[in-house]
Amino acid sequence: MKKISVSLVTERQRFSKLLRSCARNWLTDQGKQVHGSLLKMGYGFDMILSNDLIDLYGKCGTMEMACEVFDRMPERNVVSWTVLMCGHLRQGTPRASLLLFRRMGCSEVKPNEFTFSTNFKACGFLGIPENGMQIHGMCVRTGFEWIPVVGNSTMDMYLRCGRLKEAEKVFNEMPVRSVISWNVMIAGYALVGMGDKSLVLFLEMQKEGEMPDDFTFTSTLKACSGLGAIREGFQIHAYLITRGFPIFSQTIIAGALVDLYVKSGCLFDARLVFDHLEQKSVISWSALILGYAQEGNLMEAMDLFRQLRENNSIRVDEFVLSSMMGVFADFALVEQGKQMHCYTVKTPFGLETSVANSIVDMYLKCGLTEEAEKHFNEITKRNVVSWTVMITGYGKHGLGREAIHLFKKMQVENVEPDGVTYLALLSACSHSGLVEESEEYFSRLCEDRRIKQQVEHYACMVDLLGRAGRLKEAKKLVLNMPLKPNIGIWQTLLSACRVHGNLEMGREVGESLLRLDGNNPTNYVMMSNIYADAGCWKEFERVRESAKMQGLRKVGGCSWVEIDKEIHFFYNGDERHALTEEIHEVLKEMNRRVKEEVGYAYEVRFALRDIEEESKAESLRFHSEKLAIGLALVRGGMEKGGTMIRVFKNLRVCGDCHEFIKGLSKVLKKVFVVRDANRFHKFEDGFCSCKDYW
């Protein structure tokens, strides 16, 4: 009898080992086979093996199976409850973990430190401090408060929920702080944009005799990155070298260094660290690739990505695929985006929801809404991001009704919108002039206690009211909103004042804006434009002179067009292209035809004031978007019918170019699509989809 008992224990241990191995390596099918064997052998209700099965299915993403095993258990212990909560958390459903925690409270099983830690994480992910505070109270009553894993996760929860004082209180009252405790606070401050406090703590921990570890350095470098504190970043880099720290063998720290240098515009230093790495992590590759792309060096970015694909020792994961798709989306590189799409299908991560979302986003930003809809409908596991990406895209294309329809469909499918979804919906309503609908959804947002309203939500309403000419209501909303207005919301109101010619309010808002943010060239440009439109040239000169004295220059306009899989970039007045003469000739001819056939005249108020009228017209003729269109026409775009011409610009398209392209679409009977910083403009037969408000 004793031998049989030992045999059974040994067999159970063997099965437990197998299941844990499958869980570690995400071997779902093999795990299911082991599960089948357990059922046949009568081990289906064994508590320890059932716990292992729940852990396996939770880690492999098959939560339905995990819940099924849990529900069939005749007896459960604290591990049973906790591993299922961990599974929900891992699969991005933290609310399910909290519901399970509440259900556990009605059972006879008491939570342990890992149960509390898991649900603190759930509260942190959801940004629900109230639930977290209740759980914190339970920890205090049950004596778990000062167990390190509980204390650290409590701080993390408060930091993620923006409750800094509570997090600091827990940290300061901890009887014993480990390096993890310091790391949680340093990383938390960096996460909420308070990197300066991260740097202070980094110095404090060393004064108290606690040595930083890999995670400390990584978090501190991230704090430097967020602050743009390149000097402090250099100092930490030097500290690591002088202490003999093996930077180039520590991929996490090296990756943070590469990321810091990339975000600080120090690509030479980033490449230097990258080239010396013994093992290049996928994070380092993606950071450098994105750095080159953001600097406009697409050739180098593409070459690095090619090297990454050819490097068999590194698996291109969903983050890299999504990041590269994001590069093609931002630069509207249709052909390269399609090639990347084909490549992702062949990878193990091609069906990941995050990758699918980035594919949909790419097609939307390239102006291909039908392609985006097709691939959106093919996503097997749509999450809130999937729906939000599509709603955002509809908004950028001026398809507000479609955005509302999709929002309603999302709710029918029991996907809860978050703050970003509401922001996308309000923006879509604003771009389409849907005032009543926007007011309805804004009211819903304010009533939804799950979601914390942000300044950006109010900015959308200000934009909507501004578009409708309801400037007094817009200003009243800004002054009475429960949050502190940021620079962007004042800029939105100022833009509305300009569109509707309200100089009095525009002067008041503009002067306030310059006092709030006097180092931003955009504010000076907006203010000078209002004065120019009203013919107030003295005020115009005063604002412009003030900007000059501070050495401020506005960002230059840049447009690009893709022709035969090649990208051509243009700046205002650019003469570097090999076909410059041909481009100038075709634009002169188009100007003549549009002027004669539809009555177009240069909007010289969009040119510099201190040049002659003839020169103003000349400067407007060669704005970057016109040059890009000119090249497209030179390279075959003059043919009747054919494909539409797509042009992309980094800034808002100016009023003169907008009028010119409207006229050109009528004269040539051709469709032009222009994506600027605000939205898509579809020009057809003399009209624009934005209805002349953008």
Structural description of this entry:
- With 694 residues, this protein is mainly alpha-helical.
- Among the domains are: 329-377, no CATH class; 454-549, Serine Threonine Protein Phosphatase 5, Tetratricopeptide repeat (Alpha Horseshoe); 558-688, no CATH class.
- Helices cover 68% and strands 4% of the residues.
- Strands 2-1-3-4-5-6 form a 6-stranded mixed β-sheet, with helices on one face.
- A hairpin with a 2-residue loop joins strand 1 and strand 2 (566-571).
- Helix 27 (455-467) packs parallel to helix 29 (487-499).
- The longest helix has 23 residues, at 2-24.
- The termini are far apart.
- The model is unreliable at 1-6 and 606-617 (pLDDT under 50).
Summarize the structure.
The radius of gyration is 29 Å and the shape is globular. The protein has 694 residues and is mainly alpha-helical.
